[in-house]
Every structure is written in C-alpha cells, then in structure tokens.
Design brief:
Layout: H1 3-7, H2 9-13, E1 19-24, H3 28-38, E2 44-51, H4 54-71, E3 85-87, H5 91-95, E4 101-104, H6 111-120, E5 124-127, H7 135-151
Parallel strand pairs: 1-2, 1-4, 2-3, 4-5
Helix pairs in contact: 3-4, 6-7
Length: about 150
C-alpha cells in the first residue's frame, strides 16, 4: 500500500538520504503497511511506532522484525528502540516529529487529529481509508488537505 507513495518520497523531499518513517496505529493493517514501506527500493527506515495499546505495538514490532528475513528486508531498516515506541492516546504526538513520512493506520476516528498534527509539522502522510468516521471528521481531513496543498 505505501510502496507507491514511498517510491516517490525522494522526489518530494529533494534528498537521497534515509526516509524516516513513523507508524501510527499498530494493528494488522499498520503492520502490513510498515512491511510494504520497508520493502521498497528507497532507503527507508522505520524509526518510531505509536499505538494506544502496548500489546498491539509489541505484537506489531515482533511481526515486522520477524518478517524481515523472509521478506528480504535488511534488519537495519528497523531502528525502533524502546524509547521510540510510544503508547497512549497522545503517542502520535511523540512519534510524528521523528519522521519524514507518517503512516496513519490507527482507528479512523482518530485520523483527522493525527493527519492535522502531521501536516502542521510538514510531514508526508500515507493514510488508510476511511479517513474519518463522520461528516465533521471528513470535512476536517479535506480542510487539512487544502492546507497541505498550499505548503507544496
């Protein structure tokens, strides 16, 4: 899922360096999106993870690191020590500043808030759909997307 977006990430960043990724939402979809992002040809590195629940974050990390060899991914692409594993409803606030690209795969009710925080910090965003759960959330995402367009 994230592979097409990340394949152009160096174009957007203007850099050939490492593309740092933060994963917000560590369920099954987040785990899959992170593995796909790490599977790209670009120099991508997972540097932060955030979830409301520690058991989900730990399970996700274990799945990602356990699939590295079988997916042909160099283990250096995952650099998430315990101090960059954030738990709680405010975990996203700690993970977003550490990355260039933020993968938003949390519960859709929280995505407008997470999207807004990422855009305010000038981060590139890969966001799962649905992007929100109600008309107010969808309007917020659309308004924030307009702000993001103006920054480019």
């Amino acid at each position: 899922m994230a592979a097409p977006f990340l394949s152009n990430a160096n174009f957007f960043s203007g850099s050939a360096g490492t593309i740092k990724v933060a994963l917000i939402g560590c369920g099954g979809r987040g785990t899959g999106a992170a593995i796909q992002a790490l599977s790209t040809k670009q120099n991508v590195q997972l540097v932060a993870m955030a979830d409301a629940f520690k058991d989900r974050l730990d399970s996700c990390y274990k799945s990602i690191t356990g699939n590295l060899a079988e997916s042909g991914i160099d283990k250096s692409r995952v650099d998430v020590p315990e101090e960059r594993k954030f738990v709680g409803f405010d975990a996203y606030e700690k993970a977003i500043p550490l990355a260039d690209v933020v993968i938003l795969t949390s519960t859709p009710g929280f995505r407008p808030i997470h999207f807004e925080a990422a855009v305010k910090q000038n981060k590139h965003v890969f966001m799962e759909k649905p992007v929100a759960t109600d008309p107010a959330g969808i309007k917020k995402v659309l308004d924030i997307a307009e702000i993001a367009k103006q920054k480019n």
